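step=predict obj=Beta-xylanase n=413
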Amino acid sequence: MPLPQHRRADAVVTILDAHGRPLADTDVVVEQRRHAFLFGNIGFDFIALANQEGDAAEPPAFGGASVQTATALADLWLDVFNSATLPFYWGNFERVRGRPDTTRMLTAARWFAERGVVVKGHPLAWHTVCAPWLLDLSTDEIADAQDARIRRDVADFAGVIDTWDVINEVVIMPVFDKEPNGLTRLAWDRGRIPTVRLAFDAARQTNPSATLLLNDFDMSTAYECLIEGVLEAGIRIDAIGLQSHMHQGYWGEEKTLAILDRFARFGLPLHLTETTLVSGDLMPAHIKDLNDHQVASWPSTPEGEVRQADELERHYRTLVGHPAVQAATYWGITDDGAWLGAPAGLVRADGTPKPAYDALRRLVKDEWWLAPTTLRTSSTGRVPVSGFLGTYTVDGTLFELTHDSEVVVRLEG
């Protein structure tokens, strides 16, 4: 299947030697290093590994494999994904006020960054897994604490984490009643848009160059209305986060495209921030809140794995095929410690890849990837290069393959 034109470049690269002269009539090796598109996954499983902790270390919220498992998973993860989401759930990150888990999380973020992975923090403000000590504060004090938390963390991680899900699931935030929390009270008292403004202002003022997302699971017109209100209020958001947990079944191409088109009308990049497809029994359709589905065992099955692989490939082809989509994050590589115990991972609990992992790797590192290719320059040092937008090397020197038709690369050394 041909690569969508908006994802590829057909460029002419002029190669200069170290002295700035055209490298004429010479064989050179062109190789892709990373995609411009962000193929993401959560990095929760690797926090303890990055910090060289023992298996007794407490896992992060919503998943986290043992250090032994993470060690075995690392190569599988890094072979496919170029973007990692790390957990900043306030109730876990700062269980005791004034004692955030900064050092541990910064070590994990640097572990990914050192391996060429773009790191995102999730989330800076959310009503779930919220800091319990906020309940003892007044609404004004909650607002001040939220503002201070965002400014502190965005500053502490600047340069390592420059992408954030700033505020999560605001559509439901003021009326959320599953558990007492300070953010619901704040959003109820002040309203959704002022709460969004508080969060985005704190993040933007602290790191003006950061990529800041509004993120939600609600794909209804309620989320569209919220975005309209936020933009009309003059609040700048850099990308729209869309969750796509498909525990109850694959959306299908038609529904997915309809959702993408509806949110693309705002003219902002779309990030599919949380995607899952299960390889076992589907969650019953009558369940309204996915968290309410509690079962003793939820195994992956052979037939479910075949279905998951087919649906995952179709889903990623749909996302890559839509010009507004800039990133897609799968929510978990392994079934070991997976969210809700669902068999939604791409790797079984025993560490063996499922067909879905193979299908995604085939797309990312085969069909949408330029393997090392020997090309011969012309008499003027030019070679044609076609491939997925992203970072490449020619004889080891990095260059960006963009929509520009002319690229000049000066070889090092």
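step=describe
The chain is about 30% helix and 25% strand.
step=end
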